[in-house]
Amino acid sequence: MVYLKILKKKINIAYESRTNLNHIDLNDYIWIHSLGLEILKWKIIPIRFGISSGNKYNHRFSFGSGLYINSIRFDIGASWIGSRQLYHANGFDFGLSLSINN
User: Fold this and answer.
1) Who's near 90: CB < 8 A, 6+ residues apart?
2) Is pLDDT at 84 greater than 70 in this prediction?
3) Counting beta carbons within 10 angstroms of the beta carbon of residue 88, is it exposed (0 to 12), middle (13 to 18) or buried (19 or more)?
4) What are φ and ψ of residue 6, in 5° steps?
5) d(CA 10, CA 36)
6) Beta-bridge mates of residue 15
7) Please, are residues 62 and 81 in contact by the beta-carbon 8 Å criterion?
8) Reduced 3-state DSSP string for the chain
């Protein structure tokens, strides 16, 4: 289930709820809930934040931004895993993306 709300063409809010099989007990499902916020105050520089929660090992807090100039899109993002507090996190994700659209 995915829900998207656009507020005044400057803020996007997205919610996702999904299941994932538990790796310990294959008959058990884990519900994962995610909430994302994208701020489009400046047309070429979006700012994004997100939070995800499921079982005790699946907490994530993420943030990112981008640069959109004509058909060139550059995005960067990072998230820490296992805790919503940076100092208690047990993992870190980092991503870069560059795309050219016609």
Assistant:
1) 81, 82, 83
2) no
3) exposed
4) -110, 125
5) 14
6) 3, 35
7) no
8) CEEEEEECCCEEEEEEEEEEECCCCCCCEEEEEEEEEEEEEECCEEEEEEEEECCCCCCEEEEEEEEEECCEEEEEEEEEECCCCHHHCCEEEEEEEEEECC
Q: What residue type is assigned to position 31 of the chain? A: W
Domain boundaries, the chain: 2-100
Kindly give, in sequence order, each residue whose CB lies less than 8 Å from that of residue 70, ignoring residues fewer than 6 positions away: none
Q: Model confidence over 7-44: pLDDT tens digits?
A: 777 888 888 888 766 566 555 677 788 899 999 888 88
